[in-house]
Amino acid sequence: MIKLIKNGIIVTASDTFQADILVENGKISTIGSSLSAPGAEIIDAAGCFVFPGGIDPHTHLDMPFGGTVTKDDFETGTIAAAFGGTTTIIDFCLTNKGEPLKNSIQTWHAKSKQKAVIDYGFHLMIGEINEHVLGELPQVIEEEGITSFKVFMAYKNVFQADDETLFRTLLAAKELGALVMVHAENGDVIDYLTKKAIAEGNRDPIYHALTRPPVVEGEATGRAAQLAGLANSQLYVVHVSCADAVERIAEARSKGFDIWGETCPQYLVLDQSYLEKPNFEGAKYVWSPPLREKWNQDVLWNALKNGQLQTLGSDQCSFDFKGQKDLGRNDFTKIPNGGPTIEDRISILFSEGVKKGRITLNQFVDITSTRVAKLFGLFPKKGTIAIGTDADIVIFDPNVVRTISAESHHMAVDYNAFEGMKVYGEPVSVLSKGEFVIRNKQFVGTPGSGQYLKRAKYSLHTALGQTEMQSI
Ligand code: URP
Ligand code: ZN
Ligand code: ZN
């Protein structure tokens, strides 16, 4: 069915203007003033912004971790994402040492295919490098369209890879056209500090943060940046939480290295003191890297504003408080790391960022959608509002005032990390490829309608965009 979105204010990463949008066959076919289309369904967006659908570059759905499995799967997770204005996610496909990569990718297809209500792609974890892995990577890129690899520098004896693995992954990525993502924390030092804390009887959630100090993240970020420079490759640092890491990224960028940084809503609005909440409630706020002292928030906001950080991932990795976070009641090292964030990513950035004047409306669109599409091989199919792009569209009412709560959220998890937070703005309707997934704040999508996205290779030219390319 043809749809005509009328009277809204269209916002892209570069422009803000009033126009109507005609949607045909899942794509935007016309943008213009006072459009009419006989027989089209009219969607009135008066008083609303019309954004390109959000793209979340960092999710963990249906993922085994910390002796349990994340509570949200591809159905509940993508429904919650859609309520929050996200129309594409890129999820992390875990791999197992000694096993073909294609088996892991098949596992992730099986988890997602019948369940996702919005489009999705995968990043691939690289835990080891040998001739089998190197032999498979060209196929991973060409056949699966997986053009980003993830290396964990932490979680010793679980996911952690050594520096040789990181360096050789950077070299292979350069040759093949992929973007290397790192979880940058020094896992060996953390391992020592956590064992020491437990031996000394320090078992409460706050010790999760105290055994992963900012310098541990800064050191790993700097190391990864140096190795990327040495390999003349491209690097994307996930979930940047603190000034130390921002400084390492800024330094590397000032040297001309091809390095990008992502932060997450939790680091922008929550802080280390949350881990000290009584009755083990601090466990709800256990992320790696941990929440930091509050002053770091200003550094992160400034980095988003001045372009030293470019994206906002949710790092959605949800565990129930009762029955999952509980696993670490007597030992903080056993608290599953991560939290529920997929639904509130966009509203928090709009409310705390745009409404409070920390970033512009166009920066907001760039950070939540456009730049992600450019970095991860989805642009211009996704990430903007233009003729010929997928009609992934969010009709967003900026004037709604609401309170975030587990009572009203759509994630499957039993708490909300932002409980009680007042936010301005809410998606009213969300379209994926021209079809409503959320209509007047009600879910109307279909599990299995989300399509797997094969992504294009990494290109600095695309990642930067024409204007920035001309200035280097
Ligand atoms: O605590 C976190 N961030 N959990 C998710 C896994 C990861 O490290 O990204
Ligand atoms: Zn991580
Ligand atoms: Zn993550």
Automatic annotation (TrEMBL):
Residues recorded with modification N6-carboxylysine: K150
InterPro entries assigned to the protein according to its UniProt record, in alphabetical order: Amidohydro-rel, Hydantoinase/dihydroPyrase, Metal-dep_hydrolase_composite, Metal_Hydrolase, Metallo-dep_Hydrolases_sf
Modification after translation: Carbamylation allows a single lysine to coordinate two divalent metal cations.
Signal sequence interval, chain numbering: none
Gene Ontology MF terms: hydrolase activity, acting on carbon-nitrogen (but not peptide) bonds, in cyclic amides; metal ion binding
Keywords, sorted A to Z: Hydrolase, Metal-binding
Cofactor (UniProt): Zn(2+)
CDD domains: D-HYD
Top-level taxonomic group: Bacteria
Residue ranges of domain Amidohydrolase-related in the record: 49-437
Annotated PANTHER family: COLLAPSIN RESPONSE MEDIATOR PROTEIN (PTHR11647:SF1), HYDRANTOINASE/DIHYDROPYRIMIDINASE FAMILY MEMBER (PTHR11647)
NCBIfam families found in the cross-reference section: D-hydantoinase
Family from the record: Belongs to the metallo-dependent hydrolases superfamily. Hydantoinase/dihydropyrimidinase family.
Name of this protein: Dihydropyrimidinase
Species this chain originates from: Bacillus canaveralius
